[in-house]
Amino acid sequence: MTTLAWILLGGFLMSAIALIGSITLLLPRAVLGAVLLPLVSIAAGTLLGGAFFHMLPTGIESLGPIAGGGWLLAGFTVFLGLEQFLHWHHGHGPAQEYRKPMTWLILIGDGLHNFLGGLGIASTFLVNPQAGMTAWIAAAAHEVPQELGDFGILLHGGMRRSHALLLNFASGLMFLLGALTAYAISFQFEVAGLILFGAGNFIYIAASDLIPEFKSHAGLGKGVLNFVSFVTGVGLMWVLALWSPH
Question: Between the chain's N and C termini, which has fewer beta carbons within 10 Å?
Answer without folding.
Answer: N
